[in-house]
């Protein structure tokens, strides 16, 4: 059996073109060559020929045709995975060139949980926009699992989130910005906010709103009460939506547990206050996550530098900014 010749730069440039890779990617996303042709404004035979030429050059089948449409084979998926990286690097290069030509403008895509996005990230955006008014930040604010997936799929350049070290250690770089303990929060006019000293036990019969069992923050909430020798109080409202819980607390009577940083930013400090109660310190480190070996755009680097400043000046870093343990 003859040995296949090695792929060098000349052969790659001759047989694998970005235009053809883009066609393969579009066909995979659309699920059919007809839909892909319409989206790319080319003929279907042109797409068929481009993919057939790639399959001939590589010596493997890239697509499987079935009753439910077109799907990539294991070879096609491998080519697409690396092709996406190539497209991403080219996009970053173009954006960097645009930034070098006009350092006052540019775009960055950032992911964050709802609570961090509506507090810490908005503060960073406000400060960054004062220095660079031409910069646009595209914020994906969603559930933690969705934002992690968006980073892995290169839909965002960086993520501001609670750092789960087992996840970050594998294929992400993680820099801790600040530690975020939980505090008891009440409406700004709630009488408990005017007390000098409060015990957590004093609040057990007050109306509470808490996250549901199974949410990321519920174990922290439960641990706060259990470590104080108390049962978790009955909640009048159990809701997964942080804005819903905060809106109820801001109305006046209700209490909840929130990360301390929420009350240090514009999203919370007008309508909610921390109740002066000493509770066991529980929380999680909040930091910046990026993909290893991914080149960050100049605007992303500006955003990260600004995030470090905000973390130091507005939140404080009791242990200093640091890398998560590998």
Give the CATH H-level superfamily of the largest domain: Periplasmic binding protein-like II
**C-alpha end-to-end distance:** 45 Å
What is the number of domains? Answer: 3
Mean pLDDT: 83
User: Segments where pLDDT lies below 50 for 5+ residues?
Assistant: 317-321
Structural class label: alpha/beta
- Gross morphology: elongated
Gyration radius, in Å: 25 Å
CATH class of the largest domain: Alpha Beta
Give the helix tally: 11
Largest sheet: 8 strands, mixed
CATH topology of the largest domain: D-Maltodextrin-Binding Protein, domain 2
Q: How much helix, percentage-wise, in residues?
A: 40-55%
The fraction of residues in strands falls at 15-25%
Summarize the structure in words.
The chain has 326 residues and is α/β, with parallel strands linked by helices. The protein has three domains: 9-89, Orthogonal Bundle (Arc Repressor Mutant, subunit A), CATH 1.10.10.10; 101-179 and 284-323, Periplasmic binding protein-like II (D-Maltodextrin-Binding Protein, domain 2, 3-Layer(aba) Sandwich); 181-282, D-Maltodextrin-Binding Protein, domain 2. It has eleven helices and twelve strands. Strands 3, 4, 5, 6, 9, 10, 11 and 12 form an eight-stranded mixed sheet that branches. A two-stranded antiparallel ribbon has the order 1-2. The relative contact order is 0.14. Residues 317-321 have low confidence and may be disordered.
């Amino acid at each position: 059996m003859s040995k296949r010749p090695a792929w060098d730069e000349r052969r790659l440039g001759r047989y694998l073109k970005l235009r053809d890779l883009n066609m393969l990617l579009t066909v995979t996303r659309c699920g059919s060559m007809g839909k892909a042709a319409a989206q790319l404004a080319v003929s279907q035979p042109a797409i068929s020929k481009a993919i057939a030429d790639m399959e001939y050059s590589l010596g493997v089948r890239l697509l499987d045709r079935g009753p439910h449409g077109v799907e990539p084979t294991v070879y096609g998926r491998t080519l697409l995975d690396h092709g996406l990286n190539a497209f991403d690097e080219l996009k970053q290069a173009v954006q960097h060139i645009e930034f070098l030509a006009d350092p006052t403008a540019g775009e960055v895509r950032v992911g964050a949980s709802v609570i961090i996005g509506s507090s810490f990230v908005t503060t960073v955006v406000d400060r960054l926009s004062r220095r660079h008014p031409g910069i646009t930040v595209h914020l994906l604010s969603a559930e933690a699992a969705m934002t992690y997936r968006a980073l892995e799929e290169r839909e965002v350049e960086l993520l501001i989130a609670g750092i789960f070290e087992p996840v970050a250690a594998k294929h992400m770089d993680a820099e801790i910005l600040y530690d975020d303990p939980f505090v008891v929060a009440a409406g700004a006019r709630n009488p408990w906010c005017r007390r000098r000293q409060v015990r957590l036990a004093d609040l057990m019969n007050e109306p509470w709103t808490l996250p549901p069992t199974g949410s990321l923050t519920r174990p922290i909430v439960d641990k706060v009460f259990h470590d104080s020798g108390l049962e978790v109080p009955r909640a009048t409202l159990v809701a997964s939506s942080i804005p819903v819980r905060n809106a109820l607390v801001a109305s006046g009577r209700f209490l909840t547990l929130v990360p301390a940083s929420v009350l240090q930013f514009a999203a919370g400090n007008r309508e909610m206050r921390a109740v002066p109660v000493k509770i066991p310190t529980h929380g999680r480190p909040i930091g910046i996550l990026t993909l290893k070996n991914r080149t960050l755009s100049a605007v992303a680097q500006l955003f990260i530098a600004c995030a470090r400043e905000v973390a130091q000046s507005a939140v404080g870093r009791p242990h200093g900014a640091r890398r998560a343990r590998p």
